[in-house]
Amino acid sequence: MSWGAELWDQYDHVCHHAEQGIEFVKRVSQFVEKRISIELSYAKELRRLVKGFKRKEEEESKYTALKGFSKLVHESDDLAGQRELIAEYMQADVLDPLKTLARDITAERKKHMRSGTECQRQLKATMEMLDSRKKQFERASEEAENAHHALEKADVDPNSTKAKIDKLTITLRQKESTAEECRNNYILQLEATNADRRQHYMSNMPQVFKDLHDMNANRITKYKELMAKYAECHRKVFPIINTCLDNITAASAFIDPAKDNQQLIDDRKTGFAIPGDVEFEEYQGRHNKQKPKARRPPKEEPKEDFSHLPPERQRKKLKSKVDELDAAIVKAESDRTAMEKMRSVYAQNPSLGDAKAVANSLEHTNAKLSELAAERDKFQGWLTQASESKLAPPKNKSEKKERPRSWAEAFSAPVTFFTAGKSSPKTKKHKDKVNNSDAKPPPSSVSPPKPASAVASSRGEGGEWFSDDDGADQDDGDGREGVILYDFNGQNEEELSVKANTNVTILEDLGDGWLRVKKGADEGYVPSTYVQIKE
C-alpha cells in the first residue's frame, strides 16, 4: 500500500493530514505538560500538609495511636516524593521527546512540502509550454487554411490577375511552412510534456508521498512508544508506593488501644493513696479564733532524690537513674579491664607503650568507678525507701479516733498559733521549752527527705528538732485528712481557695507553715494554721 499510488490525486489532503499530525503531537505535549504541573502541585500541597501535621513529639511518643499517625504522615511525605518522581520521569521520558518529535516532523514536513511544491511547479511549467505550443500550431494552421481559401477564391475569380494569384500562392506556401514548423514544435513539446508527466506521477510525486508516509508512520510509532513510557513512568514508582502503603498498614496494625490505656496509667499515676472516709468533727467555734496572716508558698525546687514528684513518678525517676548508673559502672569496669590488660602488655614490652601512663589512667578509672558505685548506692537507697513507702500499710485511724467533743469543750478548747523559723523570737522560747521537755526527735521515715527550707524551719538555732506539741512525733503529712478552719482565698495559681469546714487530704507538709492539700480534683497550697489535722 502506497500513498503515491493510492492517493496520487490527493496531495493537498495528504499535506493537511501531515499538518494535523503535527498539531496532534503538540496537543499531546500540552496534555503531558499540564499533567506534570498537576503532579508537582499535588506533591507540593501534600508536603505542605505533612509539614503542618508533622510533630516530633508524636514520633517519640509512647502512645501507639500517635506513633501510627506519625508514621502515616511520614509515609505521606514519601508518597509526595514519588509524585515528584512521576513528574520527573514524564518530563525526561515523555514530554521532552514529544517536543523533539513535534519540532523534527515540522521541519521534515516543510522539507517534503518544498519538494512537492517544486514538482508541482515543474509540471505546471511544462503543461503551460505545451499549451503555448498547441496554440501556436492552431494559429499557424488557421492562417494557412485562410491563405488556401483566398487562393482558391482568386483562381475562380475572372477579374484576378496573374500577379495577385502568384502573390497568394507565395503567401500560402509561407503559411503552410509556418504551420508545419509549429506542428513539429507542438509534437516535440507534447512528447517532452508527457515525459515530464510520467516522471512527475511515477517518480517525483510518489517519492514525496513516500516521504510524507514515512514521516507519518514514524510520528505514530514514536507516539506509541511514548504512550507506553507514560504508563511506565507510573509503574516505576509503584513498588515504592506499595511499600509506603504497606508501611501505613503495618503501622495501623501496631496500634494497640489496651497498650495506650496502660501507657496513660504509667505516665500519670501518682501513687497517692485514695482518700478515706470523712470523719465527724465538732464545731470548734468561730468567734474565738483569729485568722493568721497567709504567706505565699515557696517555689518548689527539684530535688536530687526526686521527692518533689509524686511517689510513682519518683520511683520511675529513681529506677531510671539507677539503671543509668549501672550502665556507666559496666562501661567503667570494661574500661578498667582493658587498661589492666594494656598495662600488663606494656610492662612486658615497654616499646609498645608507657605502662605508667596507663596506670595513672587506671587509677583515675578506679576512682571514677568508686564514685559511680557510691552514687548508685545512694539512689538505690532512695529507691528502696520509695518502694517501701508504697508497700507500707495505711495507718489504722480507728485506733486514734476520739469521741466527738461537746459544745462546751469546743468553745473552751485553747487555740494556739505558732510559726517556726530561725529568726522568730517565739522560736527560741519554744526551743528552750522543747529542750527542757521530753520531746522526741522526728522518727525515721521511708518517705523522701524534706526540702532544705522545710528542714531548716523545723530546727532551732542549735539544730535540735522541736514540735508545736510537746512530746509529739512529727509526721510528714502525706495522706492525712484535715478540715479547713477559716476561709482562705488563694493569691496565685499555686494557692488553693477553700471555705471553712471543708475536708481536705494533706499531700505534703513543707514544714515552713504551708501544706499542699487536695480538695476533690483540685490541689494547691494553704497555710498550715488554717488546717486542723484529724487524728
Which of globular, elongated, flat, extended, rod-shaped describes the shape? elongated
The profile of the biggest β sheet is: 5 strands, antiparallel
Overall average pLDDT: 79
Alpha-beta content class: mainly alpha
Quick structural gist:
The chain has about 525 residues and is mainly alpha-helical.
Could you please describe the fold and organization of this structure?
Strands 4-3-2-1-5 form a five-stranded antiparallel β-sheet, with no helix packed on it. The chain has 535 residues and is mostly helical. The chain has helices spanning 3-6, 11-53, 56-59, 64-156, 162-254, 257-268, 311-348, 355-391, 397-400, 407-412, 425-436, 452-457; strands at residues 480-484, 503-509, 514-519, 522-527, 531-533. Helix 4 packs antiparallel against helix 5. Strand 3 and strand 4 form a beta hairpin.
Task: Give the helices and strands, then pairings.
Elements: H1 3-6, H2 11-53, H3 56-59, H4 64-156, H5 162-254, H6 257-268, H7 311-348, H8 355-391, H9 397-400, H10 407-412, H11 425-436, H12 452-457, E1 480-484, E2 503-509, E3 514-519, E4 522-527, E5 531-533
Antiparallel strand pairs: 1-2, 1-5, 2-3, 3-4
Helix pairs in contact: 2-4, 2-5, 4-5, 7-8
Q: Characteristics of this structure?
A:
535 residues, 5 strands, 12 helices, 66% helix, 5-stranded antiparallel β-sheet, mainly alpha
